[in-house]
Amino acid sequence: WYDRQKQIFKYFDGMQLLAAMGPPGGGRAEISQRIQSKFNLLTFTNPSDEQVIGIFFSIIGTRLSEFDDDIKPLGQPLAETTVELFRSVAETFLPTPTRSHYLFNMRDISKVFQGVYKADKSFYDTGSYIKKLWAHECLRVFHDRLISEEDRDKFKQLLNDVSTKNLSSGWEDFCTDGEEPIFVDFISAHINVYEEVTDKVKLKQTLEFSLEEYNLGSGQASMDLVLFKEAISHVCKINRVLKQPRGNALLVGVGGSGRHSLTKLASQIAEFKVFQIEITKNYGLRQFREDLQRLYKDTGLSKEPTVFLFSDTEVIQETFLEDVNNILSSGEVPNLFAPDELQALLDAIRLEAKQDKRGETHEELVAYFYSRVVENLHVVLCMSPIGSAFRNNCRMYPALVNNTTINWFMPWPEDALVEVGARFLVEKDLPEEFKEPIVDVFRLAHTSVKSNAQMMFLELKRQYYVTPTNFLELAQGYCDLLDSKRKEIQDKAGKLRNGLTKLEEAKEGVEEMQAELEIKRQEVNHGTKACEELYRQVTLEQRNADEKQKTVEQEAVKIEKEKIECEAIARDAEADLEKVLPMLAEAEEALEKLDNAAIAEVKQYKKPPDLVIETLSAVMVILKENPAWNNIKKVLSDPNF
Predict the structure, then answer these.
(1) Beta carbons within 8 Å of 22's beta carbon, 6+ residues apart
(2) 491/378 Cα distance (integer angstroms)
(3) What b/e sequence results for 542-558 when a residue is b if at least 16 CB atoms lie within 10 Å of its CB, and e otherwise?
């Protein structure tokens, strides 16, 4: 070996290299002659049909030997018919760019007999029942991967031809009421037996009950599924794969076809845990490997049956698909665990390995751990046929096709569109006579667009995909528009109702105001009359007041004159007073000197002097007595004077 870094030769001593390869094609590249020249080549030729029939007859014959005598001889015919059907399918349905998964190998034959092996001798008592089971398994292995109704009808014709030739039973014998047979192991309560479904109503009720249980489960987002006939069929097909040992499924369909939700429902029925990765902004290979470590610990350490649900939209890096391809092919992802982490896992299962009589060496414990992972892990891949990604993935990673059971989701039929559309209108308050025409419009719009898309592809070679998601968005958009318009109309009706209420209240208010106005008008009229009367009185009084004003003014002039005269008199009086005051003082002084003797002397006068008479007359006036002399003497004689 030449080391270009150090530019020296390296020699490996004591090492032998063992390699394996398949013929080119189906994702396998051609190995150059230069590399092949370094090996001793051993070519394994394909076994002949007789050898293949012998292998599978030994398998199925041993199983059928436990059944009734009517079933025991069917081992050889079933093996021959299966191999012949396999050859016919492989020659008829060749891989093309649009059918890159049309690759068939010996595993497909083994899958058919793996399904037939699930027959229980206690329930399968006739040869026709075993033949119907065989036809069902052939449908699941070969028919379900076909991408068109034309191919599927062609396969049914092949199945009819080989079964009529070798089993003396045709397609009509395998059908129930003109429909394909469906076998499940969960239809009978408390009995896990793989049997044909004869009561489709009971099957739908069972699935609805499981769906209700799933929605009631903690920590799970609820699913609102419409279980129409095709959806029920897909659930049964997925459940069949999950219940098989190392059962893995590849679900191919466009967006909205129900791959994820139907897988979750099938896992609920099988009582398997569903594991999905959560894509974040910085999600990369390291995070993916950490998720795989948790998945391997759940399945290999805890032995918890788990469905790894993985979608092509979650492929951030191509390495993701490489790891998934390794899981499908061998169950082992290289360098998934660090040596110390792997050793811790091996120590945890060492006791159980000993109980299962497994070896305790490192290699044996690793093999035991991965065998437990494979036993409990079921991979379900969800991919879309749109574009070239699916074709490239099938070519680059063969295990996606070789180690899975492929289920191709066909477009929803018209009755499915009607059921799904009707589900959207269940909770809508619409008259029943309106719902059916509306759903029919949904169906017609979807089917007409799909047919026009096919026409456009034929004429312009431009592919336009019409998916169930488009139909769901159409129905949901109608419901949203209906709700928004109803809300808008209700708001307008509410505003109109409020407006009418306000108008009615305004009318009542106007009527009340008119009544009050009438009362006020009467009061105003009465007040006006009172005001007029008052005005007349005021006018009359104003005249009187004017006349009195004139009189007062005249009196004022007169009073002014009298005032002037009084002031003159007052001045004269004051002048006289000033003259009299000395005399008053003298009189007061004389009065002070007056005594009883003087009074007695005055009383003796028969004719007093004039001044005495004048003085006493003034006293009498003050005392309001008669100023006559005789009366004066009488008053003077009063002891109290």
Answers:
(1) 28
(2) 54
(3) eeeeeeeeeeeeeeeee
Other beta carbons less than 10 A from residue 11's beta carbon: 5
Question: What is the reported pLDDT for 25?
Answer: 63
Alpha helices (H) in 279-388, listed in sequence order: 285-296, 318-329, 339-355, 362-376
Q: List own/partner pairs for 55-64 with CB under 8 A and 24 or more apart.
A: 56/82, 56/83, 56/109, 56/110, 56/113, 59/113, 59/117, 60/113, 60/116, 60/117, 63/116, 63/117, 63/119, 64/130
Q: Which residue has the tokens 């994702």?
A: 27
* Strand pairing category for 195-196 and 183-184: antiparallel
User: 2-3 and 8-9 as β-strands: parallel, antiparallel, unpaired?
Assistant: antiparallel
| pLDDT tens digit sequence for 425-483 | 888 888 888 888 898 998 899 889 988 988 998 888 888 888 888 888 888 898 999 89
How large is the C-alpha radius of gyration of the chain? 62
Q: How far apart are CA 84 and CA 241, in angstroms?
A: 24
CB atoms within 10 A of CB 456: 13
Alpha carbons within 13 angstroms on the beta-carbon side of residue 544 total 6
Judge contact between 275 and 293, C-beta under 8 A.
no
HEC readout, 138-196: HHHHCHHHCCCHHHHHHHHHHHHHHHHHHCCCCHHHHCECCECCCEECCCCCCCCCCEE
How far is it, in rounded angstroms, from Cα 79 to Cα 49? 10
Give 142's pLDDT tier (boundaries 50, 70, 90): very high
Q: What is the 3-state secondary structure (H, E, C) of 372-422?
A: HHHHHEEEEEEECCCCCHHHHHHHHCCHHHHCCEEEECCCCCHHHHHHHHH
Q: Are strands 8-9 and 195-196 parallel, antiparallel or unpaired?
A: unpaired
Report CA torsion sign: 512, 517, 522, 526: positive
Q: Are strands 273-275 and 249-252 parallel, antiparallel or unpaired?
A: unpaired
**Nearest CA among 562, 386, 371 for reference residue 465:** 386
Look up tokens 């004591």; give the residue.
14
Helix axes 362-376, 339-355, angle to 10 degrees: 80
Rounded Cα–Cα distance for residues 358 and 367 (Å): 10
Band of residue 580 on the pLDDT scale cut at 50, 70, 90: confident
Of all residues in the chain, what percent are helix, strand and coil, respectively (each to 5)? 65, 5, 30
Strand pairing class (405-408; 249-252): parallel
User: What predicted TM-score, i.e. pTM, was given to this entire model?
Assistant: 0.75
Q: Using the structure block, give the residue that is written with the tokens 């008259």.
A: 431
What are the C-alpha distances in Å from 62 to residues 73, 385, 456? Answer: 11, 41, 55
Given a contact cutoff of 8 angstroms between Cβ atoms, the answer to whether 231 and 258 are in contact is: yes
Contact 408, 145 (CB under 8 A): yes
Q: Is 628 left (phi over 0), alpha (psi -120 to 50) or beta?
A: beta
Tokens of 381: 């891949």
The span from the CA of 335 to the CA of 285, in Å, is 13
Closest CA to 277 of 265, 286, 268: 286
**Look-up: residue for tokens 């609820």?**
222
CB burial of residue 240 (10 Å; 0-12, 13-18, 19+): buried
Any idea which residue has 């794969």 for tokens?
241
Cβ–Cβ < 8 Å for 239, 270: yes
Spatial separation of the C-alpha atoms in residues 108 and 144, rounded to whole Å: 12
